Fold this sequence. Notes:
- The protein is built from six helices and eight strands; from the N terminus they run E-H-E-E-H-H-H-H-E-E-E-E-E-H.
- It has helices at residues 38-57, 107-121, 129-139, 142-156, 159-164, 260-269; strands at residues 17-18, 93-94, 100-101, 178-193, 197-211, 220-233, 236-246, 255-256.
Amino acid sequence: MSLGDEPGYPETGHTRTRLPESDPYGGASRRGGRSSSRSLVTVVGVVVLLIAAIAFANRGGGGDAPAAKTTGGNGSQPSSNSTAASGTRPVETKSTEGIPTGFAHSEQGAQSAAANYSVALGSTDMFVTAKRHAIVDTIYSPDAAANRQAGLDSAYSSAKFLANIGLNKDGSAPAGQTFVSRVVPVGTKVTLFSTDTATVEVWYTSLFGLSGAASTNPVTESWYTTSYELTWADNDWKITDFQQKDGPVPVGRDQQAATADDMTRAVEEFGGFTYAR
């Protein structure tokens, strides 16, 4: 998708989510039918625009692709030990922003780096200028960080975008609300690997929105796969570029959506993970 494309909103006839009897985000009751999803359409559209903006900011660069390597199983099917404990000690060093660093110079190390970096890139810290700069300087290669910092600043500091998702101009949540932006990796796959370069796909689910009684942009769930191009630099794996696509998206269960209070408590009480293997 190019910047400015009109996002679609597919039918969801095979996915059902039961909502509480009363509106969990304020108001007397939730209107029936698809009209209750109108605010979600706006949020999804804005998030897709941000994704497009980030992708646009990260265009360019890239040298010759390394030779492809099949990893495990028959064809594209992973072997049974592809996600098993490897016995390799996980990394123990972290940056000032708490991002694991010092990954092994191996396929496993590249997967660990990509998974951990996806968590950092999908966090609320990316909406705070100083923290975003620290994240980018930590996980991007030096050349990529220098070339793309300005583009990322533009994407994340857009006053119109921040207003549309309900944030203040400085990227903070309004009083009484909690901003949720969290990536949860489900799996990784190495598609290309050579001595000093790797391409790793990370399949993950993303939680995004504002929880709180006055929120008009409730926390929603999305699924993506991001392909990270990595290079070995400064004794660690670093991102040089990435491409994102939707899905695979599982069929949702018939579960009741959490109230605003329950969602806020969950976000505040359940800390996020790091994913070094």
